[in-house]
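Exercise 3.2. Students should predict the tertiary structure of the chain below and write it as C-alpha cells, then compare their answer with the key that follows.

Predict this chain's 3D structure.
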Amino acid sequence: MTAYDVIVLAGGAAKRLGGADKPGVRVGGRALLDRVLAASAGAALTVVVGGRRATARPVVWTREVPQGGGPLAALGAGLRLTTAERVLVLSADLPFLGPGTVDALLAAAGQPGREGALCIDPDGRDQPLVAAYRAEPLRRELALIATEYGGLAGLPLRLLTADLDLARVDAGPDAAFDCDTWDDIAAARARIREHGAVLDEWITSVKNELGIELDVDTGVLLDLARDAAHGVARPAAPLTTFLVGYAAARASAGAGPDEAAAAVAEASRKATALALRWEAEAAAAASGESDAAGGQAGGAKPDAGREGTGTP
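Answer key:
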C-alpha cells in the first residue's frame, strides 16, 4: 500500500450556497467532509485546512494565512504539516469520492517521471483538488509561485498545475462531482437513493455512524430477512438491526448485562438519528423545499467571521 498524507481544503465562503457551512452539509446523512475523510482513511496523516468541527476520524487542523486567501494559500498551509513523499489533495465537497479513485491517483502519481496525477471531469477539465502530488515538486512549485507573486493569497490553481508533469485519471462521472450549489446538493442526495445504490450507501452510512469496520454480505442477510419475515418490504430495517447489534456487542465485550443494554441503547440512538436525517432529506425533496430557504438540512451553521478558502 502506498504511504501518503492527505490535505483536505474545507474553507471557502460558499457564496453559491448562500454562505452555508458547506463541509457540514449532509448527503446521505453524512457531512460532506466526513465522506471525503472516509475515502482517504488510509492516509498516514490527515490535515484539514478550515474551521474546526467534529469529524468522523482524527485530523490535524490548520488555517491559511491570511484567512480567505484562496486555495493556493490553503494548500501551502496544509503542505507545511505533511511529511509523506506523496500528498493527496482534496476539496471537502466530493460526495462520491471513493477509495478506488484515491488508489488510482496514487498509482498514477507514482509512474516514472510523473510529478503527480489529477482527475478529469466528464468534460475533460482538470480537477487539481482531486489529485495526488509528489511532495517535493509540489513544494518547489508553491515556493516559485510565492517568490514570483509575493505570496500565494488570491492566486488561481492553474498557476500550480501549469508547470507540473501530471498524469490524468478518468475515474468516471461521479468521482470529481463537487457540490457548489443547492442544485448540486439535491442531485447528490437523489443519486445515492437510486435503485441499486441506496442499500450500499445506507449500510456505509450506518457503519460510519457506529464506528465499525465490517464487510457485510447484504445478499445473505436480505435472504435471511426475507425468509424470516416472509418477504419484508423494507430491507434496511433488518440490516440496520444487525449492525446495531454488532456495534453493541463490540462495545460491551467482557462487560455485564447492564453495560450491554446501555451499549444497545446508545447504538440504537445513533442509528435512529441517522435514519431521521435520511427521512428529513427525503421529505424535503418530496415537498420541493429548498435547503437555501431554511439552511442546510442537518448541517452546522456557518462559522461567521471564520471564512477561509479551499473549496470553491
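Discussion points: Confidence is low (pLDDT under 50) at residues 224-233, 292-312. Strands lie at 5-9, 26-27, 30-31, 45-49, 60-62, 86-91, 116-120, 126-134, 166-169.
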